[in-house]
Amino acid sequence: MYSSTFIFATKQFDDEFHRLDQTIADAARTIPGYLGEEAWENASTGLTSNVYYWESLEALQMLIQHPAHIEAKAAQSNWLAGYQVIISEVIRTYGDGALAHVLGLPVQD
User: Is the pLDDT of residue 109 over 70?
Assistant: First the structure.
């Protein structure tokens, strides 16, 4: 399993941003190999983090090549005050079982 983490600082969002954001989210959810997503906001830094989970790098690549994603990336400076993307291979998950993960992953010790 892989995760793609999109961390960003915002400027002002407009209708075009919301349209592209929704189109990209809808497209991601239809790609075979899409497993789920979650989002976080850090109030102390003002950063937002969207994490998408993927069965394979090929599935992630399908989103990267989607026309709406390409369009949004080209215009990102209209809405973002900076961003970073981190692609990671998920090797292991674990915990005490008290928190459910967005993917419904079992606890591994």
Answer: no
